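Milestone 3.1: sequence recovery, worked example.
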């Protein structure tokens, strides 16, 4: 398990570590205390990945709305 704080990880780092955590938990050969720590780390990694994806999506496009607030499409965020 990496010692890097989850908040400092890039998406790629977080997803790789999340895969390692899931593999360890799937094997089932770790002590209960370590399993709990792995699960907690995995939950934090999952949240980090979701946040980074949301951040990326917001940079790529923003939703355009009609005058009555209905979605009409997207435009580049920088556009």
């Amino acid at each position: 398990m990496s010692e890097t704080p989850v908040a400092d990880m890039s998406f790629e780092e977080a997803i790789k570590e999340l895969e390692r955590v899931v593999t360890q938990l799937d094997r089932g050969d770790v002590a209960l205390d370590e399993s709990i720590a792995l699960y907690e780390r995995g939950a934090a990694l999952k949240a980090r990945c979701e946040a980074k994806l949301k951040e990326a999506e917001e940079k790529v496009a923003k939703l355009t709305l009609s005058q009555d607030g209905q979605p009409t499409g997207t435009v580049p965020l920088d556009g």
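The chain has a mean pLDDT of 87. Residues 6-76 form a domain with the Helix Hairpins fold (CATH 1.10.287).
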